[in-house]
Amino acid sequence: MADDTDPKPDATVAVGGLPDDRTVVQRPAGDHADAGDRTAVGGTSGRVPGGAPASARTIGRYEILAEVGSGAHGTVYRALDPTIRRVVALKVVQADPNEFPGGAVPGGPGAFFEREAQAAGALLHPGIVTLYDAGRDGDRYYLAMEFVEGETFAAEIARAGRLPIERAIEVVAAVADALDFAHERGVVHRDIKPANLMILPDRSVKVADFGIARLTSGAASSTMTAGMMLGTPSYMSPEQVEGEPVDGRSDLYSIGCVFYEAVTGRKPFRGETMRALLTQILTADPPPPSQVESTVPKGLDDVVLRAIARDRERRYQRGRDLARDLRAALPSSSAAVGTGAPRRSRTPLVIGLIVVALLVAAGLEARRWFAAPTGYVVSMSDPVGADVIVDGQMRGHTPDAFEVSAGTHEVEYRKDGYFPAQATISVPARSRVPVTLDLIPKTEEGR
Length: 447
Fold this sequence. Notes:
Elements: E1 58-59, E2 62-71, E3 74-81, E4 86-94, H1 109-121, E5 131-137, E6 140-146, E7 151-152, H2 153-160, H3 165-184, E8 187-188, E9 197-199, E10 205-207, E11 214-215, H4 238-241, H5 248-264, H6 274-283, H7 289-292, H8 299-307, H9 319-328, H10 351-371, E12 374-382, E13 387-390, E14 393-397, E15 400-405, E16 407-414, E17 421-427, E18 432-438
Parallel strand pairs: 12-18
Antiparallel strand pairs: 1-2, 2-3, 3-4, 4-6, 5-6, 7-9, 8-11, 9-10, 12-15, 13-14, 13-16, 16-17
């Protein structure tokens, strides 16, 4: 069995014509039975599904541009919709040769296709990868999905080791909101993990790959085989491990595990073998995050441990409630704006004076507040550990978040052996501005 104590992040691939080797298109489902949470990803291929030669460059009406990944539940291509000239991510599944007309064999590729098409087609949300089209071409099923440029959350965590609390809350709370939307429509994802969360260039997040989603209502729900254990082991809920029916609380358990990993740098449950890992999930209580990583506020412990409680009745019942509690735990949210002046008067003779005092105090407080509005710079670099200089002053090291006055700032990252990287940024009041810069290694001549 694979060792889950030190899993490698899911590989990412370059898409033809795009220079950034961290650019990723809609991810394949991957091998959901692997204890190491690894997804097999291939390079550009000269063949298309079904054994067709390289000259067969279309599936349905879509023109194949490049293969970007493959997994247990299909192959993903970068493709072009010639009708509207839109680049899409085309997920292709080989049809089951034993399928009967008008249906799909339970548990076969066609069943996964049908379930993914129905699940994703029911969801139109800014935090979920959009499904444009679905169909069958000969012995191949296909899904045309939104082409997503960016990287996986797994890659972001791997690069940083662990994330700033604010960044982890920003991503996970947004995912919890998107899952709440899906759960309200009867869709359970069943494989929430960092590799299925796509981070866009603007640092927002989209939930990808509803390939093993279970529709809690509708015809497709009958195609699930009883007792099947589907998901990725390290993020599976206890009910998934035991092959029991699942609902939205299973997804919230999984996103709780993702948050735990993002802020501590380790998964809540680990085992040297698959059996050991699954036993941990079913019987062990992980240490509170603040005991693993001292920078995690203790106020977050209750939120995280509630999300990953073994008993689903003790967990969050709605994604929006988890998102609310995460955002309420943001370190910056604990700062008080001010309590104001006393409002009670002792006698009618001083009412006027009190009103004047209140107005003056409120005016001074408002002037103080609006005279110096602030925002945050969220610094990230590749590699991490660079010095962060803001307006000529050393502020710390990447990755971290720094409070600055609202307005324009000059940001520079420096690290020994690398050329400095600079950026001019605009920080709106009470906003968070991510600044991600790649540092270029110096050549021997440039040292």
